[in-house]
Design brief:
two-stranded antiparallel ribbon; alpha+beta; single chain; 77 residues; 2 strands
Length: 77
Amino acid sequence: MLRELIDEHLPTVLLVTHDVDEALYLADHILVFSARPARALKTFNFTHCEKSHDLSEFAAERREILRLLGIKTEVGH
């Protein structure tokens, strides 16, 4: 429902979340911050992307965001 409201009314929204998938689904831009003292590590731009619940198109960006957050996504051998 939030995605439809954003698409219809085109407001400026600042959403702070710890859910990477939620950010990928809702955001036009994602800023990944470091631990305290917080600084922007990287900005991702998704203004050119159509959004759907299928986030497989964003798998590489998701892995990069999780890596920047220090979260391992692949099990080493």
